[in-house]
């Protein structure tokens, strides 16, 4: 087992810019690279990259909004040798999301949240190569969600009642 390895490498960064007491813009980045190698038989690599551009806006002490544009990509590259056959599989999951949420807190016992998001997705489950045969399946999708929730503190803060509704739609494109 001397030639086996398991690696995890991550990078995180966040840049905040405060325009005023009620507006903040931020950029967050994440990059991860993980790998598994078992002697000369198996070699698997996973890469994850995410970038988020966000805007926090406080309309008042009781009402805030949060808007995000998120791009992410998760890639896999796996290779193995099985009974002298070389098998390679590559795939990915990529998405672009726009999300907006509003929070209203009229008093210290009540918080209401409402928001929505829409996401375009590009998925390749795998591009297979076994010896000289190749297969590939790739799909695109569109996800949309709307939500609302209400949190109410009862009995002097000793009991919290939370209720919400979330509606989601998914469509296959192409």
Structural features, described:
The chain has strands spanning 5-20, 23-38, 42-58, 63-82, 85-107, 110-130, 133-154, 159-173. It is elongated. The protein has no helices and eight strands. With 174 residues, the protein is mostly beta strands. Strands 1-2-3-4-5-6-7-8 form an eight-stranded antiparallel sheet, with no helix packed on it. A hairpin with a 4-residue loop joins strand 7 and strand 8 (159-173).
Record the SSE blueprint:
Layout: E1 5-20, E2 23-38, E3 42-58, E4 63-82, E5 85-107, E6 110-130, E7 133-154, E8 159-173
Antiparallel strand pairs: 1-2, 2-3, 3-4, 4-5, 5-6, 6-7, 7-8
Question: Briefly, what is this?
Answer:
This protein is mainly β and 174 residues long. It has no helices and eight strands. A hairpin with a 2-residue loop joins strand 5 (85-107) and strand 6 (110-130).
Give me some keywords for this one:
mainly beta; elongated; 8-stranded antiparallel β-sheet; 0% helix; 174 residues
Number of helices: 0
Distance between the termini: 46 Å
How would you sum up the global shape?
Answer: elongated
How would you classify the helix and strand content by structural class?
Answer: mainly beta
Largest sheet: 8 strands, antiparallel
How much β-strand is present in the residues? over 45%
């Amino acid at each position: 087992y001397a030639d086996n390895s398991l690696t995890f490498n991550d990078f995180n960064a966040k840049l905040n810019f405060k325009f005023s007491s009620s507006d903040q813009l931020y950029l967050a980045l994440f990059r991860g690279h993980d790998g598994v190698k078992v002697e000369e038989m198996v070699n698997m690599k996973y890469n994850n990259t995410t970038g988020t551009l966000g805007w926090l806006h406080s309309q008042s002490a009781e009402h805030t909004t949060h808007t995000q544009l998120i791009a992410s990509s998760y890639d896999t590259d796996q290779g193995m040798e099985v009974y002298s056959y070389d098998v390679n599989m590559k795939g990915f999951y990529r998405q672009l999301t726009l999300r907006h949420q509003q929070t209203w807190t009229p008093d210290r016992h009540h918080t209401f949240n409402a928001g929505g998001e829409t996401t375009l997705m590009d998925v390749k489950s795998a591009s297979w190569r076994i010896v000289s045969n190749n297969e590939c399946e790739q799909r695109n999708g569109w996800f949309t969600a709307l939500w609302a929730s209400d949190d109410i503190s009862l009995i002097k803060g000793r009991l919290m009642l939370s209720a919400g509704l979330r509606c989601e739609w998914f469509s296959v494109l192409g």
